[in-house]
């Protein structure tokens, strides 16, 4: 429930504005409404959402029965719901709002809960949410609530512009995950085909979540710990509870995967997907040995990886001695204050929203992968929107939802492009047909006219010769 309540501050290229009535537009406390974006659901980056704001009944919106007024789910009558924070998870409120046809949910903060770090980003349970959720301050939310509770109040219309990612010719993205967390690999499996189709336009770096043993630090990192390597400098959670694995196995897998990525980036993708399928299923207890099978399966030289692994430690004892690869990884981990995972950064901006999408199947052995609804595969859409228009890869042009102009107005990319092409083709064909028709008509007309003229001339000549012959006979 804590992670479902997690909301993160975003860039300043966003706004929440009141379109009507004028009494609220001129309200001083509502001039600048700051908002945070929920870390679940679909986030329409770079897009505007406008609609009528309604207050939830009841205000906490945790009930399933008799919780809304008569609702008209017409596109021209888009509704946005204002709800109170608390009493149930924000996820549950968003599901309720979506089921009643609302296009967005606005939560009024109560300033009573603080973010508690160190938990997993459970995006797996949030796949059913396809609407955005934002949170505003209590003072401003209460102003909107008081207005909506007035009898016979005028309709309240709002507009929200969601932030966009920086656009570049080559997009950089980084993915933070846990090496033995099965759910962390789902994004990689779903995005694999897209990455391969535009790999020349992407700069990808995988990163791994690591902890540190506080008690070990007090003793100078000179003690062994079943969850840690390097004397407690780098730790991971126990991946299988009471099973035979421990945190040391997870950290060792981190070192191996870093070495594989350094050796061959394409084979790293092949390895992690196969590793997640073969080694992290129901038999996770064999993961510390299964990696050898996967290395052989994807044709990675195991001796090179073992050498890289051993060379990365300052001495042969991985349980006590420093590791240069893990040191760099942990430094980056602390600079970004990674406390929730899995996590995605696109062009150095933290992505918010679900990392995976439902309705998905894949057949990795045959190279097939299909996402039924790429329009709601948030990371794919966000990465595509991070390209400049002139550098869009083909897969983005074919599958991205749309693009925004300088004013933030949203256009259907594929629809507009295809319509323009269709009209050009249709008009060109029509023009060619008209020219051909006119040419043929002209030729037929001229031929017919010539035939009639020749026929008339022949008739006149025949009559003339007949008259001359008749006059000659009369003289004789």
From TrEMBL:
Keyword terms? Glycoprotein, Membrane, Repeat, Signal, Transmembrane, Transmembrane helix
The PA domain extends over: 58-144
Pfam families listed in its UniProt record: PA, VSR_TRX
Classification via InterPro entries: PA_domain, VSR_TRX
Using the record's annotation, list all stretches that form the Vacuolar sorting receptor thioredoxin-like domain. 171-357
Per the record, its GO cellular-component terms are:
endomembrane system; membrane
Task: Give me the segments passing through the membrane.
Answer: 420-441
Q: How does it sit in the membrane?
A: Single-pass membrane protein; Single-pass type I membrane protein
Q: Where in the cell is it found?
A: Endomembrane system; Membrane
Per the record's keyword annotation, is Protein biosynthesis included, yes or no? no
Question: What stretch or stretches form a coiled coil here?
Answer: none
Recorded protein name is PA domain-containing protein
